[in-house]
Structure formats: C-alpha cells, structure tokens
Amino acid sequence: MTDQTPETGRSVLVTGGNRGIGRAIAEAFVAAGDQVAVTTRNGGAPDGTLDVRCDVTDPEAIEAAFATVEEAHGPVEVLVANAGITHDTLLVRMSDDDWQGVLDTNLTGSFRLARRAVAKMMRLRRGRIVFVSSVVGLLGSAGQVNYAASKSGLVGMARSIAREYGSRGITANVVAPGFVETDMTGVLTDEQRTAIKAQVPLGRYATPDEVASAVTWLAGDGAAYVTGAVIPVDGGLGMGH
Description:
- The chain is an alpha/beta fold.
- It has a single domain (11-232), classed as 3-Layer(aba) Sandwich (Rossmann fold).
- Helices cover 44% and strands 15% of the residues.
- It has helices spanning 20-31, 59-73, 96-124, 136-139, 145-165, 183-186, 190-199, 208-218, and strands at residues 11-15, 35-40, 50-53, 78-81, 127-132, 170-177, 230-233.
- A seven-stranded parallel beta sheet has the order 3-2-1-4-5-6-7, sandwiched between helices.
- Strand 4, helix 3 and strand 5 form a beta-alpha-beta unit.
- Helix 1 (20-31) packs across helix 8 (208-218), helix 2 packs parallel to helix 3 and helix 3 packs parallel to helix 5.
- The longest helix is centred in the middle third of the chain and has 29 residues, at 96-124.
- It is globular and about 50 Å long.
- It starts with 10 loop residues before the first strand and ends in an 8-residue tail after the last strand.
C-alpha cells in the first residue's frame, strides 16, 4: 500500500463506532465511498467497515490498531476520535478512579490517537482530525466534573494541533453535540427528557445522523479552510459558549 489516496476512497478511522454517534459517523463515511475502520472493544462494527478491536486506554492496542488499518487501507487520512465514557457523580463523591478512568479514555486516549495519526499525516502533507466533544465541555454539568473536564480538554488539544500542523495541510476540529437520541439518553425518564427539551431552543434531541453530518463536513473539501473550530450540534443549547 502506498501513501497515495486509494481510488476507493480515503482511509478513515472512527473510534467507538459500534453504536450511537460513532456508528452513524462510520456509516456516513462508508456512504461517501471511503474506506472505514472502526475501533470497538467487543465487536459490532457497521457493515462495510473494518472492525478493529482496541482499548483506547492501552497504548500498545492503539499501535496495533493503526498497524491493522494501515495494512488494510493505507495511512489514516481522517481520524474521528469519538470513543468516550461517563462515570457520573457529585464532586465530593467522585473517586480518583472515577476521575482517572474518564480522563484516560476521553482525553488521554484521544491524545494518543492523534499523536499516532499525525505521524503519518505529516508524510502525506494532508489529514483531518475531528474530536467528538460535548456541549457539557462548554457549559459544565452537575455530576459530571470528570466528563466536562475531559471534553473541554479536547478543545485545547484540537486548537494546539491546528496551530502545530496547519502548515502540513492537517486540520483539527471539534464537534460538540448536545443531547442526542442514543442508548445513553434512552435510559432517562420521561420527566427528565421533558426538562431537557425545555432547555433546547429547537425543542428536541438531535439524531446521530445530524452529528455525523457535521463530522463528515469537517472532513470534506468544503471545510478545507476550517481548523481549530468548535462546531456545536446542540439545538442552540450552548449558545454563547
């Protein structure tokens, strides 16, 4: 495999792409004709993608995942760092493990993925990195000190990468979804869902496909001059932040 863009589309890697937002993102890139690899911990990647088992908190697993993707599709040209977890509780009850586990997956994992991807993108003199953050990283949220810190950190990371590697044709951006119709929000009570919708100017949750559209736009030709940006997909919930 050469470092040239394959005729069958770009080499795209989406982490945490077996469900919810990540799955929708992976499917959108497949529909666009790209060669898509998806990291999962237990399988279940979308049809038409390369299912790569990877724990993003394990540096060796990340290296092995990139090697697998490069062997199958060539160097990663588009990285979407989407894998994330929550361990919600109030600050005074939050253990060190609650804090560290979320930071290790959401922030440190994204750092390691970006570092590995950029090494080959520099040789290609092109590349797109998209971090999936959250409106919580901009607004904060009671009971989510760890999650908010991890998602806010992605903004600083993206903007630093944008400054470091813009001259190499590499862009780094952030998508910040609000409340999205996924398994994570499906466990909320009707009362909680109604209260949340009342805060959103558009009065509804997003669909995973709407988040995926923002990600694929940032990775496409139309966003070639967009870098270091935070694109909210939150129905207006986080306006002004």
